[in-house]
Amino acid sequence: MVDDSVEYPELVDVLRYETADGPSYRSVPAGEGERIVAVHENEVRNRLWVRRLVLGAFAAIGVGYGVASGNALLGAVGAGIVLVVGWQTGNGPDRAGAIPELVDERIQQERASSAYEIDAHTSDPWNEQQ
Fold first, then answer.
1. SS3 state of residue 59
2. What is the pLDDT of residues 18-46, one digit of tens each?
3. pTM metric for this prediction
4. What is d(CA 67, CA 61) in angstroms, rounded to the nearest whole number?
5. Best exposed site among 45, 75, 116, 122 by fewest CB in 10 Å?
6. Measured distance CA(126)–CA(123) in Å, rounded
């Protein structure tokens, strides 16, 4: 039986985002941290899928143009250049920084504020006003 007269401290999860200025810590309600990380991972996965789809389409257009113009070798070289440039420019550090790391779970808000330099506390991470 829970005593309603006792006030329990607010429990939070702490997330670390990598930024250009160094790590940024944010607290969210306890239990939401894993869900937020999963949402960010899914978003990055979807962006990569769309990027690969677009690169493949441009490569196919290059091969198609080469075949249509009677010079399949030119089309294959063009498609190869598109794929190599796309592959090299897509491996930047921004992809890893887009996914936060769950550094602490279910700790008191006061303890999180003292242990980490909390930049923001969100009481409802799914309805942020930015």
1. helix
2. 888 889 999 999 999 999 999 999 998 89
3. 0.74
4. 10
5. 45
6. 9
At residue 130, the pLDDT reads 45
- Can you list the pairs that 34-39 forms with residues at least 24 positions away whose Cβ atoms lie under 8 Å? 34/102, 34/105, 36/100, 36/125, 37/99, 37/100, 37/101, 37/102
Measured CA to CA, the distance from residue 112 to residue 8 in angstroms comes to: 15
Q: Would strands 11-19 and 22-29 be described as parallel, antiparallel, or unpaired?
A: antiparallel
Hey, is 39 helix, strand or coil? Answer: helix
Are residues 110 and 9 in contact, defined by beta-carbon separation less than 8 angstroms?
yes
Q: What is the DSSP letter of 116?
A: S
Cβ pair 47, 70 in contact under 8 A: no
Eight-class DSSP state of 66: H
Task: Please check whether residue 122 is in contact with residue 128, taking contact to mean a CB–CB distance below 8 angstroms.
Answer: yes
Give yes or no for a contact between 125 and 32, defined as CB atoms under 8 angstroms apart: yes
Residue 92 has pLDDT above 80, yes or no: no
**Which element (helix H / strand E) includes 77?**
helix 72-89
Residue carrying structure tokens 């942020």: 128
